[in-house]
Amino acid sequence: MRELVADIPRRRRLRAGMVGGGRGSFFAPVHRAALRLSNRFDLVAGAFSSDPATGREAGAALGLAPARNHGDFRAFAEDEAGRADPVEVVIVVTPNHLHFEPCRQFLAAGIPVICDKPLAATAAEARTLARLAAADDRFLAVTYTYTGYPMVRDARARIREGEIGEVRFVAVEYLLEWLADDPARLGKGGVWRGDPARAGATGALGDVGTHAFHLAEFLTGQRCTALAARLLSTVAGFGLDDTDVVQMEFDGGAHGLLWASLAAPGHRNGLRFRIVGSRGTLEWQQEAPETLRLSRLNAADLVYRRGQADNTPDARTAISLPAGNPEAYLEALANLYCDCATALEAGRDWRRATPVPLADAAEGLRGVLLSEAAVASSRARAWVPFPAG
Amino acid sequence: MRELVADIPRRRRLRAGMVGGGRGSFFAPVHRAALRLSNRFDLVAGAFSSDPATGREAGAALGLAPARNHGDFRAFAEDEAGRADPVEVVIVVTPNHLHFEPCRQFLAAGIPVICDKPLAATAAEARTLARLAAADDRFLAVTYTYTGYPMVRDARARIREGEIGEVRFVAVEYLLEWLADDPARLGKGGVWRGDPARAGATGALGDVGTHAFHLAEFLTGQRCTALAARLLSTVAGFGLDDTDVVQMEFDGGAHGLLWASLAAPGHRNGLRFRIVGSRGTLEWQQEAPETLRLSRLNAADLVYRRGQADNTPDARTAISLPAGNPEAYLEALANLYCDCATALEAGRDWRRATPVPLADAAEGLRGVLLSEAAVASSRARAWVPFPAG
Amino acid sequence: MRELVADIPRRRRLRAGMVGGGRGSFFAPVHRAALRLSNRFDLVAGAFSSDPATGREAGAALGLAPARNHGDFRAFAEDEAGRADPVEVVIVVTPNHLHFEPCRQFLAAGIPVICDKPLAATAAEARTLARLAAADDRFLAVTYTYTGYPMVRDARARIREGEIGEVRFVAVEYLLEWLADDPARLGKGGVWRGDPARAGATGALGDVGTHAFHLAEFLTGQRCTALAARLLSTVAGFGLDDTDVVQMEFDGGAHGLLWASLAAPGHRNGLRFRIVGSRGTLEWQQEAPETLRLSRLNAADLVYRRGQADNTPDARTAISLPAGNPEAYLEALANLYCDCATALEAGRDWRRATPVPLADAAEGLRGVLLSEAAVASSRARAWVPFPAG
Amino acid sequence: MRELVADIPRRRRLRAGMVGGGRGSFFAPVHRAALRLSNRFDLVAGAFSSDPATGREAGAALGLAPARNHGDFRAFAEDEAGRADPVEVVIVVTPNHLHFEPCRQFLAAGIPVICDKPLAATAAEARTLARLAAADDRFLAVTYTYTGYPMVRDARARIREGEIGEVRFVAVEYLLEWLADDPARLGKGGVWRGDPARAGATGALGDVGTHAFHLAEFLTGQRCTALAARLLSTVAGFGLDDTDVVQMEFDGGAHGLLWASLAAPGHRNGLRFRIVGSRGTLEWQQEAPETLRLSRLNAADLVYRRGQADNTPDARTAISLPAGNPEAYLEALANLYCDCATALEAGRDWRRATPVPLADAAEGLRGVLLSEAAVASSRARAWVPFPAG
């Protein structure tokens, strides 16, 4: 409890660096706000842009010492490797197709990495990173933000404890609207998300569907073993799929359904799950993240609420405010960063240090492989094994 | 407006008969309550059971004259054919696998038929009925109850008027829980629904999925042209599919997704649709039928409510009470019966007499063919055309 | 269970008459639809208007035999008194200020009465009726419709069983919008509701506030002992209060608050209660009548739903359809009529025959006294005892 | 837009100090989290406890230089007055009855003050502070947190623009449950809140009712001119009112109703308003702060959502994340701090610098006078003018 507001007595803050996230970046400032909120990191070094001047403007704005405000992530990595007080973690928030190289270099330099999702733009890159990280069980965490929500963790814990019985069906969806009327108006964001060279093999699936897929596995503890995907283009002029349907089979016997879209008007950030078990269904929606609804067989629904006495221990580890003083997106992301701090402080024991598993490089790889498998399935109009042999 | 409560001045009531629906029938008394509510029919004749004594007990309870209280639907049909004042319509509410024969006989006798959905247990039977009805454009209506809800009609009208732009994606679901824990406890209903000899080719799909499928076409005016279905058995001991996923393509370019289940704990009668267009999404849920939500591109949601001044004309034709005095399931079914009465009064012009199209025999046939196509698709794990060549 | 759809085996239907409710009446046809739905009464006699021709048109439309289709309620009462098969109950649905005389005459004739609420336009009249009814414990029921909702009865039963602990605060509200913008456009309804000569001592309070007040006592079993009312006119040109606030004290120690308005835009038929106890709060809203929400001290909310296994026995007596097939306003009113039928069949034992108490003449009197007390309190800007000494 | 995540280019951060908020403080760490999130202040000095050792532990944990980590707020104030780089604002988060002295001293020292609500424990103290602040129009802001929510500002702007027509009725409520079952278990918080010597003249009203009262005036722009209050003790053993009802009259002709409670089980932080105008009603709930519902006369409801294109300019000034990525309580408080920073940077022009008015000392005084007036009214069971002559 009080995860983000426990400032007395002092907890040490870790030295963090950042790659990417200069002026014009949309989500990097959100990550930095979450870092401030977490109170577990000091941002002391960085290379914030592929354009050195832009990058240095950002570093100055963020209060970095000039010596640690780099024009280039390679120089940044080299410099840190030689310092007595190197950053204890580097956060990679470059555009999606530029995750690979900085992740690789910092891993090689022995510096832990937190990388925004997706881990990489191609399966080959993601495999390389996963192999590098696995070699020495190095710390590489992928920010699947939504697992930072307390009630998502509450759902996972309840499923593990058998509260809904045997898991039978997993329905996840992630619907957005921004592409709905005119991709041309979307500017830079729209362009790269629809450009196979930069967005990867898929559009909506890689951009948002992967969050939903990750949640399905995170919540149930079951692994997808086969899938049948339909990648659709409902909006003209966008180079990749904007709407997807993926049917899934899981190793624990559950079946599943994923629906993702960037072109669903009236949906802002519509991530949502329903996990159907033999005794009840758990439902959660990201736009109303404070509650988790358990509907039960022939009995009253239960509406669990963050911060109440019946929260599971897993949920409690990610709570800062009392029930009724709502928490939301930034708190969820800050919870992830708190977990990262806790894990980093644990050193080689990092995997056992957090209440719920951090998404590691292998998890990040699955997210990238999802796109690859979905493309294959959609072309063949057939089920394919996952991950492919 | 005031459809069900307009009793002054008097409207003539039609003479109606019923086949099936004796003691122990679950839904027939619901139909009779809707008939009373509609105030458009007098139930004057019937054969309420395959067991003559049981049937006659029902007819007596319902106030029928002994001469028109038959022990057998064949005798009933013959008798009516010879009367000066024959029933103007017969309502068939026998168990699903026994719809065919009474429908056929009354059609042959020249008496209009209202048949509970599904029209028949096999495609062959349904084709026969559709052919018989088509021969002379005879009146045969199938009670797809949910099209009787005013806000379902409101949604259809708004889509036709272009309020959500081009229809791109149709998500329908129909989830129930009754099979969830133990099919053995389900008694008679559970048994026949899982028995291929009586339920037809599918379980959940034919029982409830067909309602969702019908709504998808009713709302969008588009026809399904191909589908990929996955028929699942998640509960042991039930002879047919209990959970289904069907992907659909429509002739107007829309794609669709149908999820149906009899084994989803926490869902009572969870019929629901979301129609995604290029400008907005319309959402409706049967368990809260009074409102229709239009979520729009980057603007406030609109929550339309039955009975308000901005209802479409189609919705208004099915409204009895002012907004705020809620209407629900029985009113929806009674609205369907009112439409039937209006159509029957129009004689040969029956197809043009109602505000929204009645589901006719051809429509009923599509519902039966859906099961056939889904079985084929699920076995082949492949897309199939719909209806098959 | 299956209250309104239990038509086999046959239940005897009672002979009913009606006073008022001819062409132009708004709520009388709603009552008749509820009667049809209840399947417990046959409407066999009546005097439907103060204008004989209008009244007889209504009776003809409703299928009455000419001999029992009266031009005047006095003739009707006299005729029934002399018949071998008199009506077993008369239903009074005249305009509010015309309830008294027919009630009085039929009571005097020994015929049970069901009277729409309010019982009478003045306290003097209501006292007279209450005295007449009490004399021989005659049957006079007032249709406080909302007590017919199963989940209202569920709430009452849960409170009685102590599920929310000691009742501490009772918040009831009833908000409508029809008067909001322009009383002039309201026609006949608006005129009489704002006319002290016809509406009684109060406007909003007598029209809708009395329902909320009745619910407060019905639910808690506590009786109001004192009140402080503020009767407000927020809309120009309406002759009576359109908005009211009433604070209440109850004999069981609870406090309460009533807010009623005819001039609250955006509220259709916004009756709602929250009963705050020492362990939880029960909340219900008429526009979503199928669920009852129990919010509990530091624990998940429970959302009870009509038709589920955990409904109280009191709720079960008023249920016709399974959970998920929603019931609504007409079913609630029909449930009241079923209770009346059950009570009437019990003869002198009528008070003990129904699952929850019927609102009798004494209850109806309290509703009328409420207006009287509220006017006194509002004028004096002071608390007054209730009912006045 | 992007208020809390606009970190490039750099905005200067103001030097801030804090009085109170050492170990054990519940809300001070929340304020500090909001300060971090705001990115507009550096906490550089403080006196965090009346116990010097406790205070210095806090200062150390918060990274203060020892020279500015004081054991006593008087020493703190004196020190700052003599520095070349004094704090630009001091934030007072002592227990409620200890606000007065530090506020007075820092005002006297010419240092702007942000004080947690309520401004002071007694009307006399609050008047003194208001007078001191008024003397030279000094900056003193009271943190009425809930005005920091974008959709609260959206509501205010819509009301000002006439979207709901003439404001007729204002219903505000603020319900909590913590006192519900046993005040004894409440520890320190429960004790002082029920202790007249420390909590002030009222319990629930001063603690939470004042927020609701402030919102009523903030939203409508109307000032309360008279009130009738009922201060109730429904829980034994708590020294002050735990539940209150206050009726209000406003100078613009509106009427109002406030309901506050600390003892309403099932309510966590249940602040909520409904503003009824002649054309529509605006409703907002703190536990679901992202949307604002406009229900309209005989037309579809509009559900406005933070971050969408139809937000008012006032709302936009307090938005950081896109619609769908929810914001909540900490963001609201951080928005208030951003406003304070903007106002402080404007120097003498501070009152005109913010999008919506900051709650100043005069506003804080009204909050304290509310308790005084309510006690008088409740004792006399009478309406009293507000503020008293």
What is the CATH class of the largest domain in chain A? Alpha Beta
- Low-pLDDT parts of chain A are none
Do you know the CATH architecture of the largest domain in chain A? 2-Layer Sandwich
Write the CATH fold name of the largest domain in chain A.
Dihydrodipicolinate Reductase, domain 2
Strand arrangement across the biggest beta sheet of chain A: 14-13-12-11-7-10-9-8-15
Return the average pLDDT of chain A rounded to an integer.
95
Largest sheet of chain A, if any?
Answer: 9 strands, mixed
Name the chain pair whose interface involves the most residues: A-D, 48 and 48 residues
Structural class of chain A: alpha/beta
Number of separate structural domains of chain A: 2
Question: How many E-type strands of chain A?
Answer: 15
Oligomerization category of the chains in this entry: homotetramer
Characterise this structure.
The structure is a homotetramer. Chain A has about 400 residues and is an alpha/beta fold. Chain A has 2 domains: about 5-145, NAD(P)-binding Rossmann-like Domain (Rossmann fold, 3-Layer(aba) Sandwich), CATH 3.40.50.720; about 150-320 and about 360-380, Dihydrodipicolinate Reductase, domain 2 (2-Layer Sandwich). Helix content of chain A is about 35%, strand content about 25%. Chain A has helices at about 30-40, 50-60, 75-80, 100-110, 125-135, 150-160, 185-195, 195-200, 205-220, 315, 330-345, 360-380, and strands at about 15-20, 40-45, 70, 90, 115, 140-145, 165-175, 225-230, 245-250, 255-260, 270-275, 280-285, 290-295, 300-305, 385. In chain A, the strands form 2 sheets. Chain A has a 9-stranded mixed beta sheet. In chain A, strands 3-2-1-4-5-6 form a 6-stranded parallel beta sheet, with helices on both faces. In chain A, strand 4, helix 4 and strand 5 (about 115) form a beta-alpha-beta unit. In chain A, helix 1 (about 30-40) crosses helix 11, helix 5 packs antiparallel against helix 12 and helix 9 (about 205-220) packs across helix 12. The longest helix of chain A is centred in the C-terminal third of the chain and has 20 residues, at about 360-380. Chain A is globular. The mean pLDDT of chain A is about 95. At the A-D interface, helix 1, helix 2 and helix 11 of A face helix 1, helix 2 and helix 11 of D. Strand 14 of chain B pairs antiparallel with strand 14 of chain D, so a sheet runs across the interface.
